[in-house]
TrEMBL record:
GO annotation (BP), single: cell adhesion
UniProt keyword terms in alphabetical order: Cell outer membrane, Membrane, Signal
Organism listed in the record: Flavobacterium circumlabens
Name of the featured protein: OmpA family protein
Keyword Cytoplasm: no
Organism ancestry: Bacteria, Pseudomonadati, Bacteroidota, Flavobacteriia, Flavobacteriales
SUPFAM superfamilies (UniProt xref): OmpA-like, TSP type-3 repeat
Residue span(s) of domain OmpA-like: 606-727
Length: 727
């Protein structure tokens, strides 16, 4: 009985179950419904159509007092007290884990929305602040001990077992270019099972042996012990579940993914076979943050007893006690309550960073932080943890190697594998195989039915996936169920578009041969007027007669004005208004009488003006060149003559040259001819029609004055312009 009492005071029963399940597995993109336990946002935009968990289990145990070679523990005759390596302190701790996941599933309800429903059975216990030195001292039991004086300290322990049904909803919250954010929430209904807890405050125990009378030995103790349970452990040994104990809890989380190659996954460029890229992990780096197990269970029938164990009892009193509770009730002051108790869930903060190093190789850094006070009565939580996990991941196979620092048990290395529907692993198996001082062990395994998103098969590459393709090996359009359109006449116009499916014809005529509808020898495809016959040179169209004058436009010099055929379709005009139409008018722009064919007559005044102008043209003496000294005046006279002559386009004029009788007659004749021709050439150069001019020289044969006087000879040296009549 002494040993039972001391064990109670020390609360050395340190096996616990905690919330850190599936270590190394849950960060896998193909973890499916198990990943929702760590972060409910993880199931949104997952690689699953659905994931059905048949059965999975995860368990762990760790402490900071006993270090063992794990597989020696199962050998016959193994003794913890003598063979394990102990590292006692005044506040040793111990934990263990057991988590059973029953039938559970997740599925996509829309491209950006996912649901999960799961069932779990869990049991959680913690023991903290155990005096490890005291455990070492009493390992052989009190019956072999003599006098002792022990300080049990402020031990605190709690244990809870419950079941839960959860529903999780996750959705894509934001998506733009390389940024992708999703969130999730889990609501859980909790059914309480068995809950028990103990807490000590400044508990000290002293035993004084009486060698003369062992039954008179004295056990003195001080401090306070609180014991609570959802069942009456005193009254019976059948611990039925309290069906009236229930509660609610929830988890929430966010996941951000950095997708630098987002353009590769642009849905506007996705082919049907790509399945909107749902089968691909698109991130380079993923960040996750979540809080889980917020909530509590209300044990309405829970009973709590607080004992003030300050006092002295004898060895005889201890030996006479039937059970531990009778002993405590008989010898110590007790304060009891039956109002029930609430026990928290193991609330924790989880963080996760996942780096896609290269193709299917990943490196994950994740950790847990306990958010439950270690000194609270009936409180239990997780151990703080940090894990670095490299992994290879594909749809049907994953291998992972977690390296973990765990509060209490220290560093550990594990390994795990997922093959198809089965997964198994441990976060500590490697270190447990090689270490002689393992302080923790864990495992997980499960069987599930995964239904993955995958790229659709398109054998013929026609953009119609095989399951919808009526011609899987031959490319064809979607509107024809993936089969090519037939082309009966082989004219490269599919029958669906061919107006003449049995006769070859060009594409531009809907697969029909060209016709000559108007019979003008031009086929309709080159006939600009296929319904009206016309000449080939006018592209099969009849020549137009725009002004309706009977002269076709091709022959009509005035296509917009009616005219006569003999005038090339133009009207007969009288531009100079002299009553003679332009066709018969030798001078259509100058008014003139009919008898002069519409040209103006050369008047005496005009001839006089010509005489005056011609008289004033001066030559170098004895030569047929203009006088340089008076060249400007001469040019002006020629311009005036030109302006007069152009008014008589049908008149013929002669340029006559004359000399005096001084000198040789033959020389004078040639000089007069040359001077006349010079004047004629100068007028022609200024624009006078050569047909209107002739030149002639008379030498001294036609004097107008007497050559006997100087003034007479001057008058005889002259140039004249004479009107000869009409052309």
């Amino acid at each position: 009985m002494k040993k039972q009492l001391l064990i109670l005071l020390l609360f050395t029963a340190s096996i616990t179950v905690k919330a850190q399940s599936y270590l190394g597995y849950f960060q896998d993109n193909y973890a499916g419904v198990q990943s929702v336990l760590f972060n409910p946002a993880s199931i949104a935009d997952s690689r699953f159509k659905t994931d059905i968990n048949i059965f999975s289990v995860s368990g762990s145990v760790q402490n900071d007092l006993y270090g063992v070679r794990l597989f020696d523990v199962y050998k016959d005759g193994y003794d913890f007290d003598s063979q394990a390596k102990r590292t006692p302190s005044y506040a040793n701790n111990g934990q263990a884990n057991f988590d059973v996941m029953g039938p559970s599933f997740m599925f996509n309800i829309a491209p950006k929305h996912t649901l999960a429903v799961f069932t779990r059975a869990r049991s959680v216990s913690n023991v903290r602040n155990v005096n490890g030195y005291l455990i070492d001292q009493v390992k052989d039991g009190l019956d072999q001990s003599s006098n002792f004086n022990y300080n049990a300290g402020n031990i605190n322990g709690a244990s809870n077992t419950w079941g839960e049904v959860g529903i999780s909803y996750a959705a894509v919250l934001y998506q733009k270019n390389q940024h992708f954010l999703k969130g999730g929430l889990t609501a859980k209904y909790l059914q309480g099972g068995v809950n028990g807890y103990v807490q000590g405050k400044d508990v000290k125990v002293t035993y004084v042996e009486n060698t003369a009378n062992p039954q008179a030995g004295v056990l003195a103790s001080s401090g306070e012990i609180t014991i609570g349970a959802s069942q009456d452990f005193e009254a019976n040994e059948d611990y039925d579940f309290d069906s009236g104990s229930r509660g609610f809890g929830f988890d929430f989380g966010l996941v951000y993914e950095w997708r630098p190659d987002y353009e590769q996954y642009d849905l506007s460029n996705a082919k049907p076979a790509d399945n909107n890229f749902r089968d691909l992990n698109k991130y380079k780096v993923r960040f996750g943050l979540s809080v889980t197990d917020i909530g509590s269970i209300d044990y309405r029938n829970s009973k709590q007893d607080t004992y003030n164990v300050t006092g002295i009892v004898t060895q005889q009193m201890i030996d006479d006690a039937d059970n531990l509770y009778d002993f405590l009730n008989e010898h110590y002051t007790k304060t009891s309550t039956s109002k029930g108790a609430k026990t928290n869930l193991p609330t924790a903060l989880h963080a996760d960073v996942d780096w896609n190093m290269y193709k299917k190789f990943y490196l994950n850094l994740n950790g847990d932080i306990n958010m439950v006070s270690a000194n609270k009565v009936n409180a239990y939580g997780i151990a703080d943890r940090v894990s670095l996990t490299p992994r290879y991941e594909s749809r049907w196979f994953s291998y992972y190697l977690p390296v973990t620092w765990m509060e209490y048990s220290g560093m550990q290395v594990g390994s795990g594998i997922r093959v198809g529907a089965f997964f198994i692993g441990s976060g500590s198996i490697v270190s447990n195989l090689v270490s002689k001082e393992s302080k923790g062990a864990d495992f997980h395994l499960g069987v599930k039915i995964p239904v993955y998103e995958k790229k659709f098969k398109d054998t013929d590459g026609d953009g119609v996936i095989d399951k919808e393709d009526a011609c899987k090996k031959v490319a064809g359009p979607a509107e024809n169920n993936g089969c090519p359109w037939p082309d009966t006449d082989g004219d490269k116009v599919f029958d669906k578009d061919d107006a003449c499916p049995d006769t070859k014809g060009p594409v531009e005529n809907k697969g029909c041969p060209w016709k000559d509808t108007d019979g003008d020898t031009l086929l309709d495809n080159v006939d600009a007027c296929p319904a009206v016959a016309g000449p080939v040179e006018n592209k099969g169209c009849p020549w137009p007669d725009t002004d309706k004058d009977g002269v076709l436009d091709r022959d009509d010099a005035c296509i917009d004005v009616p005219g006569l055929a003999e005038n090339k379709g133009c009207p007969i005009l009288d531009a100079d208004k002299d009553g003679i139409n332009d066709k018969e008018d030798d001078c259509p722009l100058l008014a003139g009488p009919i008898e002069n064919k519409g040209c103006p007559k050369v008047s005496k005044a005009t001839l006089e003006q010509l005489r005056v102008e011609a008289k004033s043209i001066f030559f170098t003496t004895g030569k047929a060149t203009l006088n340089d000294a008076r060249k400007g005046e001469t040019s002006g006279r020629l311009d005036a003559i030109k302006e007069i002559l152009k008014n008589y386009p049908n008149a013929k004029f002669a340029i006559n040259g004359h000399t005096d009788n001084v000198g040789n007659a033959k020389a004078n004749q040639k000089l007069s001819e040359a001077r006349a021709k010079v004047i004629m050439d100068l007028l022609i150069s200024k624009g006078v029609d050569p047909a209107n001019l002739t030149s002639q020289g008379f030498g001294a044969t036609k004097p107008v004055k007497s050559n006997k006087t100087a003034s007479g000879r001057a008058e005889n040296r002259r140039t004249e312009i004479v009107y000869l009549g009409n052309l």
